[in-house]
Every structure is written in structure tokens, then in C-alpha cells.
């Protein structure tokens, strides 16, 4: 077994419009690094920036690593050193990136007793540390790579979907923090039947377009969420301006990712993702909110050792 292992946990986009808590996509451009090593003392110890908890039960990487350690039956413990590359509260899977990297690094330093499907429970435990509930729409894409469909009621039920070659994706993060718990609090407890049925249809159309590689249709349907985005958009003051700028610059569609404030845009055929990104960042700054962004590709590998 290696003395130490460093894992890379990539960023991810989630919901993708009408796929609330059900659909996620692993992307390039950002990620967390977690180094793991064996310790004589039992349990998990954590080193990292002051912005993250060092109690492993409250830390996404720590809780995921604890699950791996306990289920493996290994003696002793695991130390973790976390380097955040994905900002927390950004909407691009900051907690998930740490969770998958923590699980993967701990698993590797223990001799890799589990394959990726065997780490599903561990990464879901990690996500629980961030949100207080089990959600798979960021951690499962970050674990497996690519596009993943998961059940909101039972995230251990999932499917990794084969995605045709995708265009580059413009991703922007306005400098506004939106925590997952805060974003869930603004959602209504119930929705009208007509909205629920329309949402189901939109998700079906979106999935069909994704699997067929029809990116113009993807753009159309990712803007038809009725359950979450209309409420969460109020937490991002520049939401409307950024979305309008993306569409004016040639995007086929633009939406929040996860809880926000991050937003992403799919280019139309022939449109320039870099130009769309510039327009989105400029719109945010014109609204007095600084922002940064990047042009991402689909990450088909997911968490990995580096």
C-alpha cells in the first residue's frame, strides 16, 4: 500500500434546469485535492484551510473517509490534507469535490478495497455533512464522471448516461455566496399538480436531447424548470442580466447550476463559448457583483489519483 495518495475531485454542474436533485454533469476546470496517509491513531484527522471544519463528522471529505475506513475494517486511521479549488457555496459542487476526493484518497491508501460503485455510500455520507440530507446530483457525477441521473428519494439508485460529444460550456460564478441550506429554504413545500407534470415532461425532453446530442434542444429545455430556479434566482441579484447576456451572445440556453450563484450556458451551433463567457462576466460586473468564470469541457473520468 502507498504511504500517501493524493486524489483530485472535480467540479460538477447539477439540476441542469428541470433535473432538480436528479441530474448532474462532471466538468473540467476546477477541483479539490485531498492527500491521505495512514495513521496509528484510529479515526480520521484533517488538515486544511480555516474555512472548513476539522471535525470529520462535519467535514465532507472527513465523513466520506470515515465511512471508507469503517466499512473496510482496516486498523488504525487516516489523515487527510485538503486543498480547496472549488469554492464552497458556489453551486459547482464544492462539497461534493471534497467528498469524492476524500473517499477516493482514503480508499487508495487503504489498498483500494472498493471500486467506484463501492464508494457510492461513502460519498453520499460526505454530502450529508454539507446539506444534512443525502443528494447524489453532484457527488455521483464527481465520482463517476460524465452525466449521471439519480433518484432524489433514493440517490443510491443511479444511472451513468452515455453522452455524445458535448460543446464547451461557459460557467460563471458571481461573487455571492449561496449555501445549500439557504437555497433549500426558499423552495415551496408543495407545488401545483400542473407544474409537477410539466416538470416531468421537461426533464424527459431534456434527457432525450442530451442523449441525442441535440444541443439546441438541450438549451431550450434547461431553461424550463418550474420547481427550483424561479425561487433560487432571487438569491442571485444578477441572474436575469447574466442570462440575457448569455443568450444575446449566442447561447442556446442558460441556467443556474445547483443552488447557485453559479450559472452555465450552452453555446448554439457556431457560437463562441469564450465570447458568451465574457458577456456573462461583464453583465455581472455591470450589476456591481464581481465574477469569474471559465470554459469547461465534460470530465468523463471523475475522481482520480494524481
TrEMBL record:
The reaction(s) this protein catalyses: L-homoserine + ATP = O-phospho-L-homoserine + ADP + H(+)
Pathway the protein takes part in: Amino-acid biosynthesis; L-threonine biosynthesis; L-threonine from L-aspartate: step 4/5
Entry EC number(s): 2.7.1.39
One GO biological process term: threonine biosynthetic process
Keywords: Amino-acid biosynthesis, ATP-binding, Cytoplasm, Kinase, Nucleotide-binding, Threonine biosynthesis, Transferase
Signal peptide (from-to): none
GHMP kinase C-terminal domain ranges (all copies): 207-280
Entry's Gene Ontology cellular component terms: cytoplasm
Record bears the keyword Methyltransferase: no
Enzyme class name: transferase
Major location category of this protein: cytoplasm
Domain GHMP kinase N-terminal residue range list: 59-146
SUPFAM superfamilies, alphabetized: GHMP Kinase, C-terminal domain, Ribosomal protein S5 domain 2-like
Subcellular location: Cytoplasm
Entry-linked InterPro entries: GHMP_kinase_C_dom, GHMP_kinase_C_sf, GHMP_kinase_N_dom, Homoserine_kinase, Ribosomal_Su5_D2-typ_SF, Ribsml_uS5_D2-typ_fold_subgr
TM segment ranges: none
Highest rank taxon of the organism: Bacteria
GO molecular function annotations of the record: ATP binding; homoserine kinase activity
Family matches, as HAMAP family: Homoser_kinase
Role noted for this protein: Catalyzes the ATP-dependent phosphorylation of L-homoserine to L-homoserine phosphate.
Family, similarity comment: Belongs to the GHMP kinase family. Homoserine kinase subfamily.
Protein name (database record): Homoserine kinase
Native source species: Rubrivirga marina
Lineage, top ranks: Bacteria, Pseudomonadati, Rhodothermota, Rhodothermia, Rhodothermales
